[in-house]
Amino acid sequence: MTFDIINPEMLGTPRGWNNGMLAPAGGRVLFVAGQTARDGSGGELPSGFVEQFAAALANILAVVRQAGGTAEDIGRFTIYVADIEAYRGSLEALGTAYRKQMGRHYPAMALVAVVALVDPAAQVEIEATAVLPPADQ
Q1: 59: how many CB neighbours lie within 10 A of its CB?
Q2: How high is the pLDDT of residue 37?
Q3: How far is it, in rounded angstroms, from Cα 79 to Cα 124?
Q4: Predicted local confidence at residue 137, as pLDDT
Q5: Span 31-132: which CATH code?
Q6: Which of 27, 44, 90, 121 is least crowded, fewest Cβ atoms below 10 Å from its Cβ?
Q7: What are the residue ranges in the chain where pLDDT is below 70?
Q8: CA dihedral of 80, 29, 100, 126, whole degrees rounded to 10
Q9: Which residues pair with 30 in a beta bridge?
Q10: 98 with 76: CB under 8 angstroms?
Q11: In this structure, what DSSP letter does residue 73 have?
């Protein structure tokens, strides 16, 4: 899907996100549940913040791809972090990890610092909304 990017001048120029993503009519909406770095193996999570972010993002993309979409179909992320200072201290590495999987596609985003995540070993959880092309295309 090709989104119309909505960035009102009064909000300034966003960096690393967009304020609004308008999907074209007829798209199918995919709501992706919060994903941590955990995979189906039941093994331990990566210990590093950036590594957990990259794995959680990969899990989001696995759901989107299974539904027939691509990274560019994602219109919104909500990123939950259990350690805001780890996030702030990793911005450059996070940007690199993000672009490796998402390229230069920047959906609307929110980052929320939380006291804890359900998985006590998780440092990051990401949820997403994607808009996929109609099934007949």
Answers
A1: 21
A2: 95
A3: 7
A4: 59
A5: 3.30.1330.40
A6: 44
A7: 1, 137
A8: 10
A9: 130
A10: no
A11: G
Exposed / middle / buried, residue 103 (Cβ in 10 Å: 0-12, 13-18, 19+): exposed
Q: What is the 3-state secondary structure (H, E, C) of 39-52?
A: CCCCCCCCCCHHHH
Q: Which tokens sit at 122?
A: 């998780």
The token duo for 31 is: 């709501």
pTM here is: 0.89
**85-108 confidence digits (pLDDT tens):** 999 999 999 999 999 999 999 999
* Neighbour-count burial for 20-54, b at 16+ CB within 10 Å, e otherwise: bbebeeebbebebebbbbbeeeeeebbeebbbbbb
pLDDT confidence of residue 1:
64
For residue 80, the model assigns a pLDDT of 98
Residue 135 has what pLDDT? 76
Query: How far, in Å, CA of 136 to CA of 72, rounded?
Result: 19
Q: Would you give the end-to-end CA distance of the chain in angstroms? A: 11
